[in-house]
Amino acid sequence: MTFRYFVAAIFLAFFLSSSLALAQQSAEPTPVYTGNVGGGFAVTGGNTQTSNFNLTAALTRDPKTKNVIKGTAAYLRGNQNDLLNLDRTSFNFRDEYSISKRTFTFGQLDYLRDKFKGIIFLWVPSAGVGYKLVNTGSTLFAIDGAAGGLVERNPGRTTSKSGSLISGERFQRKLSKTATFTESLSTIWKTSDFGDSLTNFSAGATITLVGNLELKLEFIDSYKNKPSNPTLKKNDTAFVTAFVVKY
């Protein structure tokens, strides 16, 4: 067994044991804090050797009042024939306040580091308003818009600053007691150059396997209209498979 297979085995064993332990706990009142941690690992050999892994985490503070705080983070890394071909880190922090059952305001902070998109760092603090077009027990469809700032650093360039405008939508549909479909789309425009935008799309499904252990399948598409280097491709996609443990 190679070291990479050993790491993968330890990783999966950790999540399986954690989920079983959590499943055995007695039912308790809905907690103020909920979240999840997850990860996936894949290795291929033979004519082409590849290894890919991802780590994700999410935390929500919901005291069942009008104010909800959410945070998400993700790290993707991949190698092909011992050459790095994917290295991306992102996180989002969002404080949302409900004005009514459908209308809400929010403040958020986005961060992105993507080596192969030529982004050393991208910080986008913003605030805005949103509206839930559909808000039922099984379905959520919301749109929002925001304005704020933007700070970006690219290889070989000085740090650039600009205002930003953001639009987005998110959809969630509970397909059954054990399966949920989610989709989101957002675009960030620089006010100093509206032709320079970054669009992120994701769609996926989460399936409960046993207890608090879930399988997550997600497609991620990132499109930057003006890459920092003209030789870079505008579009990057990834298909992520991960085991997720809720807490």
Q: In brief, what are we looking at here?
A:
Helices cover 9% and strands 68% of the residues. The chain has 247 residues and is mostly beta strands.
Number of helices: 1
Approximate helicity band? under 10%
Biggest sheet: strands, sense, closure? Answer: 12 strands, antiparallel, barrel
CATH class: Mainly Beta
Structural class: mainly beta
Strand order of the largest sheet: 1-2-3-4-5-6-7-8-9-10-11-12
Query: What is the straight-line distance between the termini?
Result: 32 Å
H/E element sequence:
HEEEEEEEEEEEE
Number of domains: 1
CATH architecture: Beta Barrel
Total strands: 12
The backbone outline, from C-alpha atoms, is globular
- The CATH topology corresponds to Porin
* Full CATH superfamily name: monomeric porin ompg
Strand content range: over 45%
Gyration radius, rounded: 19 Å
Explain what you see.
The chain is mainly beta and 247 residues long. The protein has a single domain (3-246), classed as Beta Barrel (Porin). The protein is 9% helix and 68% strand. It contains 1 helix and 12 strands; from the N terminus they run H-E-E-E-E-E-E-E-E-E-E-E-E. The chain has one helix at 3-23; strands spanning 33-44, 50-61, 67-80, 83-98, 103-114, 119-135, 139-153, 160-174, 179-190, 193-210, 213-224, 235-246. It has a 12-stranded antiparallel β-barrel with strand order 1-2-3-4-5-6-7-8-9-10-11-12. A hairpin with a 4-residue loop joins strand 8 and strand 9 (179-190). It is globular. 19% of the residues are buried. Residues 1-26 have low confidence and may be disordered.
